[in-house]
Every structure is written in C-alpha cells, then in structure tokens.
Amino acid sequence: MRKCFLLLVAMLFCATGLMAQQSDSTVFKGYLYNKEYNVYMRINFYDRDVVISWQELFGQLPGFLAKEGSSYCWIVTDVEVDGERATLELVNDSGSDDLVATLTQQNDSTYVLRQGKGATMRVPNSGKWQKLPQQLTFIRKNKGK
Question: 115: Cβ–Cβ under 8 A, 6 or more apart, which residues?
C-alpha cells in the first residue's frame, strides 16, 4: 500500500511539472504590438520557427521586430529564456548594427523590451530614421502564428 501511495505522489509531481512546463511554453510565443511607435514583434522563442514573410532567405528564426508598413526589421538571431525574462541577440536586416536586449513578461498581455549593449534600435518613419526608446512596452495581440 505504501508503494502505491509513493507511486501516486511521484506521478502527481511529474504531472504538475509537465503542466507548468506546457503553460510556460507560450510566454514567449505570439504577436506583440507597440501602438506608440507602430512596431511589432513576431516571436516563438521555443520552436524558433518564425519566418519573415518578405525575407524568407533568413529561414526559421526565434523572431523579429518590424515597423508596420515597412520591410525593415530587426532579427532575433539567438535567445535565452529564463522564466519570464528572455535575453535576445538582435541584428538589423542589413547586418550593419547589432545589440543585446531583454524582453520581460510583466503580466499575461504586457511585455517590456529593454535595449542593452550595442547599437540603438532605429526604424524608418516618414523617410527618416526614428530611434526607439531604451525601454519599449508591447501588448500581446491575437494575430495568427
């Protein structure tokens, strides 16, 4: 009887751990949007299967940041996830600038991107380059994969 009880407890712990792992695998997956700067991120830091539709030659990636209405983007080349925080290595699509940033989940729908070492992120805006702030807040949207 004691062996059955211990086996049941062990199975319960395993099931609980599996459920926690499954729910965590969606934290850094989806479409994030910043209305103020009209930029978005499409990410999947787990499967690393995001394809930039207008730049397929880069293949499958962990994700990218782009400006609505522009083909310019910042590509996530590598990522390390630690709970609700991910450390990203990004490079612009021309390969001239790179940086390290962190993306932190604040709650179910809010994320904060903080630029770290390297270049300052810029995106095209009305024919000029617009610097993005060192800290940028994104909201999760339901927009496909």
Answer: 99, 101, 121, 132, 134, 135
